[in-house]
């Protein structure tokens, strides 16, 4: 797609079967009278888009090229060079099994929704509600021989209504590549006419987007604007959006014999031809184009997001049109000459690897190359290789190989075996080898940074590696793909499917509740095909088997059917492949009354290992699950597991939080925990579990806005900690190192939680700071996480206990001591070694303690109106807010949400203090001498509260009420854009350690 939640654009490779040559089949249009074909009923949409009035009809329609197609050079290596061993067959089966696991979860939990949420097992609609994953995966189902699943999906697709959506507009690019492309490729493979009929219906809707004064489409198809003749082309639209519709629209014209679809996108092509040599980097098109005025004045050039598929489709359109339209060859050659000269670079590496990457060029007075590369640009290896083959440019095949190897190398360079979304590399002066010369050690070597460390299940790298394998028949490409596949599955696998991950640099990375449709429709398809025989979707098939009218004689379709029938003869039928294991979370059994099955415990204990393990380092979820699996009468361990599951669901605000009793939910886990506690007389228990169970119940109730109940469970946990003498240093004298560390982690975790709760509610803290800390060498957590946890304990140990609760009898501290405390709490340089979630915890906690010190100061000292007066400034909360947002702007949403109620509480306290200031000094809401005014900061903090707690957050509602009373009506300023990233990094790096 063009834009994602991060507002960063992405691409999707067009239908793989189009890439692989299947789009050459010029089949006859479907008779209009057909209604039920092959037992699949066609259900027409409730509105016929072809009847909508055109306000700007074309004066003429350009016909589809009718010249005889040229004989194009062979792409694949000769058949004799390929080996399909038993080991390769087992890899192919592993890919198919992984596909089935994800697809069946989609069917069970998200059927007819656009996407499956692979962590929470829910469905979501983000592409019009037209079953994007289902439609996009049709061709993969067919290629993998899953005919029953294909038939069921095709029947569902035949019922889609393109006139029914909850959206007022649809993304033209996304709907074309996911829905129209999915239907066309499935029809090409299966020959099911109902799929073509659905594609024609959708094509008529999308064609409406071209009804603008100059017949160039906008980024969105707005239905009201279309009905009223108000559509116009965009003035700053991604070049890849209108520029990447040409393959589906051309194919639709070929299949229907209606040239209007081809004509519509050919007008975009003609604009691109006219503009190509008139840009700031002649030969390439900028990332953004003015389609309304037909200008190309932007100064950024890239093969990455916003522009990628515009270039990718140039050689593919040459293939699709049989080489008869020379424009696409000319555009490709011209553009790639400029790309090679200006965008490609060789990374500076210790081993001088012969690999290439593509960067971005910004043209001001001169063209300047930025070595920021993207996973999205990994398609370029396949593009160069394919273009080099069909256009007989051997140099391009070599460049494609070096680009594809570069992406494969980048996967292996990171600890998880996956490549980040966006990264920067050191570069050599030319494309030739150079010495590795760096001023400081880089990790991994050669990488300046991984600016966006996520992996989103993208297909671009494996696509290029697949194409290189088919061109060379070299098995090293299969080995490279297998390493990638294993790493991806290892870190993205959830109990249900596969999820994007937050940080490829971190083997403890958290997962994101997202599985875009291209995981099934592209990524796994390319993995499957690279381990398949070369005549399964051959890249050359249609060049050899075209009839005089363009139709196939012996078609790829028939070969696919023969190959997949051989699979059926050798393997268990697909409807018998379902795992019948009762412990498989992807196929839950009915729940007995008031008793949750073990696989539900396993599911949420597994989730607890990832995001929250860095803040609750007191339990090994694997050991706990083994205990309850092997000892069904160990009620205390069961209660501990239930409380941890309830706390995990609540803290992460998973969809199961506070669900009804008849479904698996945090409520049901909490209820089961309370029942189990009665079975072993928990009041007399003397164990570490007796400290932790009420602690996790405190977390559960805190995140459910039941703060009094939460307080009671916290007091119980504090009491158990006292009874076990965990606050007495002598307790640890005769314990083993491991036992000491575990008990100290529990003590400090409860102490920190109690201090935080007490400070918020004005209560006296009970537990005392001790001068004993957990050991950094611990079996339960790595040294990096332990260092971060100890840093958090020392924030509280550093402060005197009377600074977290207030008494009218306490003596004021000296002015200089307050100044010293504030200065020390500004220091956070050691936090950068911490994992992202822990870094957020450390940073936000420091700012929260600074706020508490400020409140203490305001009670005992006269305050200054000078923002630079630090500890005694009335406006210090604004500076604290700005500093807090400078960090939150650079971290992932998951790292923030991991802390649940805890971060809500701290952000709320800051916002509440700022509102007190605004109430007294209204001018502060609009900037004053601060970089950002309190009003904007408050709106951003409100955004944080909403992101963590949702609209039902009690903290959010209180802030919204107060802001409304103060008439703070400034427009929302999303906290992810509160500062420039470079400024925020500089601000943090200038701090010093506490």
TrEMBL record:
Keywords: Disulfide bond, Glycosidase, Hydrolase, Signal
GO CC annotations, alphabetized: endoplasmic reticulum; membrane
Active site location: 174, 308, 421, 460
Example of a GO biological process term: ERAD pathway
UniProt feature, compositional bias: Low complexity: 576-586
Highest taxon above the source species: Eukaryota
Gene3D superfamilies associated with the record: 1.50.10.10
Keyword Ubl conjugation attached: no
Pfam families: Glyco_hydro_47 (PF01532)
EC code(s) of this entry: 3.2.1.-
Stretch forming the signal peptide: 1-34
Cofactor or coenzyme needed: Ca(2+)
GO molecular function, one term: mannosyl-oligosaccharide 1,2-alpha-mannosidase activity
Region annotation (Disordered) ranges: 540-593
The keyword Cell wall biogenesis/degradation is annotated on this UniProt entry: no
Family per similarity comment: Belongs to the glycosyl hydrolase 47 family.
Record protein name field: alpha-1,2-Mannosidase
Protein's organism: Fusarium austroafricanum
């Amino acid at each position: 797609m063009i834009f994602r939640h991060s507002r960063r654009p992405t691409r999707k490779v067009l239908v793989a079967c189009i890439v692989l040559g299947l789009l050459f089949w010029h089949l006859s249009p479907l008779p209009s009278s057909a209604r039920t074909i092959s037992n699949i009923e066609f259900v027409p949409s409730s509105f016929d888009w072809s009847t909508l009035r055109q306000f700007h009809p074309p004066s003429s329609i350009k016909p589809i090229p009718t010249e005889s197609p040229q004989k194009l050079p062979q792409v694949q290596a000769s058949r004799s060079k390929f080996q399909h061993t038993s080991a390769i067959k087992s890899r192919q089966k592993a890919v198919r099994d992984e596909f089935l696991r994800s697809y069946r979860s989609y069917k069970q939990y998200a059927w007819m929704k656009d996407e499956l949420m692979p962590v929470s097992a829910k469905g979501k609609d983000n592409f019009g509600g037209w079953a994007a994953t289902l439609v996009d995966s049709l061709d993969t189902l067919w290629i993998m021989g899953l005919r029953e699943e294909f038939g069921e999906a095709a029947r569902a697709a035949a019922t889609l209504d393109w006139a029914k959506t909850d959206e007022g507009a649809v993304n033209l690019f996304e709907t074309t590549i996911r829905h129209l492309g999915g239907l066309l490729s499935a029809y090409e493979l299966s020959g099911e006419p109902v799929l073509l009929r659905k594609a024609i219906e959708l094509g008529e809707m999308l064609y409406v987007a071209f009804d603008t004064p100059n017949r160039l489409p906008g980024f969105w198809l707005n239905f009201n604007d279309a009905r009223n003749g108000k559509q116009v082309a965009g003035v700053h639209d991604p070049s890849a959006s209108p520029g990447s519709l040409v393959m589906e629209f051309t194919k639709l014209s070929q299949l229907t014999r209606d040239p209007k679809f081809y004509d519509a996108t050919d007008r975009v092509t003609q604009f691109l031809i006219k503009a190509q040599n008139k840009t700031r980097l002649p030969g390439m098109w900028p990332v953004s184009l003015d389609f309304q005025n037909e200008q190309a004045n932007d100064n950024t050039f890239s093969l990455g997001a916003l522009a990628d598929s515009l270039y990718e489709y140039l050689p593919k359109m040459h293939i699709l049109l049989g080489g008869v339209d020379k424009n696409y060859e000319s555009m490709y050659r011209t553009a790639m000459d400029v790309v090679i000269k200006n965008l490609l670079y060789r990374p500076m590496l210790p081993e001088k690897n012969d690999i290439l990457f593509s960067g971005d060029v910004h043209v001001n007075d001169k063209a300047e190359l930025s070595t920021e590369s993207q996973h999205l640009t990994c398609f370029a290896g396949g593009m160069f290789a394919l273009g080099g083959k069909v256009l007989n440019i051997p140099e391009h095949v070599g460049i494609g190989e070096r680009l594809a190897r570069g992406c494969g190398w980048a996967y292996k360079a990171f600890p998880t075996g996956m490549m980040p979304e966006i990264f920067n590399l050191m570069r050599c002066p030319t494309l030739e080898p150079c010495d590795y010369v760096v001023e400081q050690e880089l990790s991994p070597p050669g990488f300046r940074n991984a600016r966006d460390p996520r992996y989103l299940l993208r297909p671009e790298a494996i696509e290029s590696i697949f194409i290189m394998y088919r061109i060379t028949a070299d098995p090293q490409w299969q080995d490279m793909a297998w390493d990638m596949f294993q790493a991806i599955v290892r870190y993205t696998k959830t109990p249900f499917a596969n999820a994007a991950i937050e940080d490829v640099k971190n083997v403890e990375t958290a997962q994101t509740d997202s599985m875009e449709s291209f995981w099934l429709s592209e990524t796994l398809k390319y993995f499957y095909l690279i381990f398949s025989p070369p005549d399964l979707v051959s890249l050359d098939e249609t060049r050899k088997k075209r009839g005089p009218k363009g139709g196939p004689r012996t078609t790829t379709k028939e070969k696919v059917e023969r190959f997949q029938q051989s699979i059926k003869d050798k393997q268990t039928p697909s409807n018998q492949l379902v795992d019948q294991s009762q412990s498989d979370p992807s196929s839950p059994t009915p729940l007995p009354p008031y008793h949750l099955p073990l696989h539900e415990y396993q599911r949420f204990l597994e989730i607890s290992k990832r995001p929250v393990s860095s803040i609750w380092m007191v339990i090994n979820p694997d050991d706990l699950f083994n205990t309850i699996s092997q000892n069904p009468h160990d009620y205390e361990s069961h209660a501990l597991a239930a409380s941890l599951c309830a706390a995990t669901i609540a803290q992460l605000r998973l969809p199961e939080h506070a669900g009804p009793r008849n479904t698996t939910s945090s409520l049901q886990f909490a209820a089961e925990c309370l029942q189990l506690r009665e079975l072993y007389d928990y009041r007399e228990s003397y164990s570490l579990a007796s400290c932790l169970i009420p602690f996790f119940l405190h977390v559960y109730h805190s995140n459910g806005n039941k703060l009094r109940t939460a307080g009671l469970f916290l007091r119980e946990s504090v009491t158990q900690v006292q009874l076990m003498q965990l606050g007495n240093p002598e307790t640890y004298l005769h314990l083993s190192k491991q036992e000491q560390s575990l008990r100290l982690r529990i003590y400090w975790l409860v102490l920190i939680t109690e201090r935080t709760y007490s400070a918020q509610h004005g209560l006296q803290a009970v537990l005392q700071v001790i001068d004993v800390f957990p050991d950094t060498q611990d079996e339960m957590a790595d040294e990096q996480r332990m260092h971060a946890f100890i840093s958090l304990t020392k924030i509280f140990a550093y402060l005197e206990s009377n600074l977290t609760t207030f008494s009218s009898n306490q003596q004021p501290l000296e002015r200089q001591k307050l100044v010293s405390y504030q200065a020390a709490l500004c220091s956070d340089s050691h936090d950068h070694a911490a994992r992202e979630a822990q870094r957020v915890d450390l940073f936000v906690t420091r700012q929260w303690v600074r706020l508490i010190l400020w409140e203490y100061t305001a009670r005992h000292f006269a305050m200054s109106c000078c923002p630079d007066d630090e500890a005694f400034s009335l406006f210090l909360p604004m500076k604290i807010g700005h500093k807090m947002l400078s960090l939150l702007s650079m971290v992932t949403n998951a790292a923030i949400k991991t802390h649940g109620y805890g971060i809500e509480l701290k952000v709320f306290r800051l916002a509440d203090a700022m509102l007190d200031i605004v109430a007294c000094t209204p001018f502060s809401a609009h900037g004053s001498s601060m970089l950002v005014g309190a009003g904007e900061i408050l709106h951003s903090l409100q955004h944080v509260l909403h992101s963590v707690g949702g609209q039902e957050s009690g903290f959010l509602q209180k802030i919204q009420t107060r802001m409304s009373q103060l008439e703070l009506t400034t427009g929302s300023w999303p906290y992810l854009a509160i500062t420039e990233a470079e400024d925020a990094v500089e601000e943090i790096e200038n701090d010093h350690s506490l």
